[in-house]
Amino acid sequence: MNIMSWCKVRFLSVFLGVLFLFSCSLMHECNARELDKVGDGDVIVEWLGHGSFLFISTDGKRILLDPWLSTNPRCPGKYRKKGGFEKVDIILWTHGHVDHFMLDDAKALVEQYNPKIIAPWELNFFIKSEIPEANCQIFTLGNKGSSAEVDGIQITMTEASHSAGAQLTGFEGKNRFVGEAVGYILGFKNGLKIYHAGDTALMGDMKTIIGDFYKPHVSILPIGGVFTMGSEEAAHACKLLQSPIVIPEHYGTFPVLEQTADKFSQLVGEKCPGSKAIVLEPGQPLVINQTMIFPAQQ
Ligand SMILES: [Fe+2]
Q: 11 vs 77, which has greater pLDDT?
């Protein structure tokens, strides 16, 4: 390599490095800007990769849903560390599969934060048998169709069409029946309702019960295919649910799953004019304020 070529390569690598650092700082700034806009009545939604979510309620309660942290390839590094969360008030589990309920993660979260735990009835008892100190709300909310107020949040357990056994020792290990899979609707004090479908197939309940009766403003839907709905089914689910905001999840984790939400976003744009698809990056909080959801009331 002559001196001119070396200089060109050197210049290009320095330029790309500066560009990368600038992009990182811009991304960080965007997150900070979003958090700056948080008001008392706002709710924050943060995707932790795959089916895992962190919600922060209008009065600062931290709710984790299906926290799969330690071996989740898309979980932000800060949440894999001990003490990664400021606090955890409630954990919701949708079913026992290891990519949603990982026993080691559950033990660590219980030990660090002592959260209230909501899970399907049989999974609750399994958790208690494996983690005796777990604060399972077994008699508060234990089955599909029931609702309860927990820490000021109205939580409803919904149908989900999926299997649900617990894998005790990872993806290769023994399996145990721990009840059926569910979804959740979270009703916050400002009137906002968020539906997390859990792992599910497309199902009629999305119109007849969840869409028509509960009317969620935000629906979080699996789009990855293979184990759940794919993009086409999820886009049809958006038509049934009629939520103003839809958020894709359960994709891009493994090579067998859909790798991006591009197709889902395109289909929502074409088929669901009343819904806007918001594609999150893991670790990037989304502030949902009342202007986004209830524009007519402002
Ligand atoms: Fe899953």
A: 77
Q: What is the mean pLDDT of residues 166-177?
A: 73
Q: Are 69 and 48 in contact (CB under 8 A)?
A: yes
User: Are the C-beta atoms of 198 and 162 separated by less than 8 Å?
Assistant: yes
Whole domain around residue 124: which residue ranges?
38-297
CA 17 / ligand 1 centre spacing (Å): 37
Sign of CA dihedral 98, 62, 47, 181: positive
State in Å: Cα 222 to ligand 1 middle: 9
Distance 36 CA to ligand 1 centre (A): 33
CATH of residue 285's domain is: 3.60.15.10
Centre of ligand 1 from the C-alpha of residue 180, in Å: 13
pLDDT tens-digit series, residues 196-206: 999 999 999 99
Q: What is the CA(112)–ligand 1 centre distance, in A?
A: 25
For residue 26, the model assigns a pLDDT of: 34
